[in-house]
Design a protein that fits this description.
2 copies of one chain form a homodimer. Chain A has 11 helices and 17 strands. Chain A is α+β, with helices and mostly antiparallel strands. In chain A, strands 15-14-13-12-11-17-16 form a 7-stranded antiparallel sheet. In chain A, strands 3-8-6-7 form a 4-stranded antiparallel sheet, sandwiched between helices. Chain A has a two-stranded parallel ribbon with strand order 1-4. In chain A, a hairpin with a 1-residue loop joins strand 13 and strand 14. The longest helix of chain A is centred in the middle third of the chain and has 17 residues. Chain A starts with 7 loop residues before the first helix and ends in a 15-residue tail after the last helix.
């Protein structure tokens, strides 16, 4: 299946929605993809179920603080160099690339890489949303080694990391990313087709594009986009979608620290003036609280959207006075297992609350 | 020429002297070398002037804060893995290894690597002393590219860095070293024999061993070791050696920061109680001041030695009350050129004073 230039904006909106406030604004990645398509390159999207078991798939992505991404634009060669570094370690060329996360800019980077290199892009990812750290992957939960990892920056510098421990991979690559100026581009989790089939969350590029399409068409057709999403998502592997709060942004506390965008946003309800919802984030939204009550909790997706347009608002663009709807989405079962929660459940972020799936 | 177990202690004392207070205590490296010699391995030291022009030489070394080295002991495999990572990038095996710096522990690491791998060690280095940063090499001044750099820690993790810019190499490798726990082992500046001949400071392993020998024999023969050193060093490429201050350590301010051991030591003269000498260090001693007067300045070597035994005292073992002699040594001409001073003269350390060679 070919990915066309008309699909880019829908994908970017859907990827922002699945980005849970983080993931890096896909707008920049979208521009990169449009540019390469206009040059005549082709992007082929491949269903993971049709993969050759023995093929080599090398995912590609961006890492760092989304706040920095807005100011330090990529040249475009970074993820290519990162992928080449992994190929050099393996002594073998990639047959395809794919997203490590479908949320945010990382839904678009593999499309750009696929177009540039003339290799297909697998319609699947390892997070089903966006998460801030590299070990937070369904690939990792299911025993895939994260390295060799290749990392590159806009200056042309390239690093390779080899470790048996996916947490160490994150720790070392994050240190390099900070020294590279706060963002970098990487390739990791090289996998066989067989491994992709058994460890990835499938058809998530298609899902992101459809979410974007629903939001766009709802606006055109004067339908309620939130109702449309609440009806659509339960027909996918994402169990439930539900509005959990509505109101006005009255406080945003945000800093760039340890290579992440950290902070919290407070939203006040319009009608009952005393009612507030507080959303805490590490790049991505982690927990939404209403007084003592937990409204939604990672790994379920918490996304803040413009109340009028239903366009998702990433955390680096949150502003005082925005009227917003907070929507939560229950993630697929593969992301709610005990081992999955160890990797990217509340405790992985230092949150004391036990995970309770959104209903 | 073979390097014997009887030579280890002399080398370590001489390397401490040339370490200018830093370089990492060679004691630990000395133990590693003794252990590998006792196992029956052989260490062959080769004169750089006899090198085959086309041979591949890969230097090996340790980097990080000397304070951390004392608490985080190497397993021994780290520099081997680092060298293998560089070989893998080049697609070629090393014909020999050599020190990047003769001062401190890095005089011993290549001996250990040479013994383990059965390859010779070149009697030369790129600093003629110790410096805290990786771009501060006569190799770099003369156009040798520092990368591929291989880096490894005691956990077995391995990183590779590729960049055209030796300052970026330092910046990125330092970031990884901090994340690896404060110390790591590396291989970099892969060179041909021809490049070694034209860029290295020659015969410095021999020099270090002879300095250690002079200090040891002076104690045995009840001669003045400082006078002996002042007589010996001008017969080498090191132009002058001179005692610049004597007294008691009355203050040590030391912290581990940005991956370095930073601080200053104040020494008070015994007879004129008001007279004080202040030595500032970043791993290595950078400047010795006596009131407004500069007594000695980097790249010339400033070493603090025990007043009784003449054993050099590294900055991580400086203590209140030690009676010491501060000795300064003028470095070889190759280290005092304009381009050399740009790389490791006072301004490279943020020191305002102009370099004025020790006389």
């Amino acid at each position: 299946m070919d990915f066309h230039i008309e699909d880019v904006d829908d994908l970017c909106v859907g990827a922002s929605f699945l980005g849970a406030g983080g993931g890096g604004d896909p707008y920049i990645g979208g521009l990169m993809v449009k540019k390469v398509l206009k040059k005549g390159h082709r992007i082929e999207i491949v269903d993971p179920d049709t993969l050759d078991d023995g093929g080599l798939i090398i995912p590609t992505a961006m890492m760092g603080a989304p706040t920095v991404l807005l100011e330090k634009l990529p040249s475009g060669d970074e993820p290519i160099r990162a992928l080449r570094a992994v190929e050099a370690q393996l002594g073998r060329k990639a047959d395809a690339t794919m997203p490590t996360e479908v949320g945010g800019i990382n839904s678009t980077i593999p499309l750009y890489v696929g177009a540039r290199l003339g290799i297909p892009v697998i319609d699947a990812d390892g997070q089903g949303r966006a998460f801030p750290e590299l070990q937070m992957e369904t690939f990792a939960i299911n025993g895939v080694r994260g390295t060799p990892l290749g990392l590159s920056d806009e200056k042309g510098d390239v690093a390779t990391i080899l470790t048996e421990d996916n947490h160490r991979m994150e720790w070392l690559a994050r240190g390099l990313t900070i020294r590279m100026g706060g963002t970098a581009y990487f390739a990791n989790y090289p996998m066989t087709g067989k491994q992709v089939k058994s460890t990835a969350i499938k058809h998530t590029l298609t899902l992101a594009r459809r979410i974007g399409c629903i939001i766009r068409r709802s606006a055109q057709d004067k339908r309620n986009p939130f109702e449309e999403l609440e009806a659509f998502l339960p027909t996918t592997s994402y169990s439930v979608a539900r509005r959990i709060f509505e109101g006005k942004v009255v406080d945003v506390d945000r800093k760039t620290d340890r290579g992440f965008t950290l902070g919290e946003v407070v939203i006040r309800e319009d009608k009952k003036m005393g009612e507030k919802c507080c959303v805490i984030f590490q790049n991505e939204n982690l927990i939404a609280r209403h007084g003592e009550e937990t409204l939604a909790l990672v790994p379920d997706i918490i996304t803040i959207m413009d109340a009028e347009t239903a366009l998702p608002i990433t955390n680096e663009t949150l502003r005082y006075g925005q009227r917003v709807v907070v929507m939560a989405v229950g993630v697929p079962d593969i992301m709610r297992t005990e081992s999955a929660l160890l990797q990217f459940g509340p405790s992985a972020f230092g949150i004391e609350e036990q995970f309770s799936p959104l209903r």
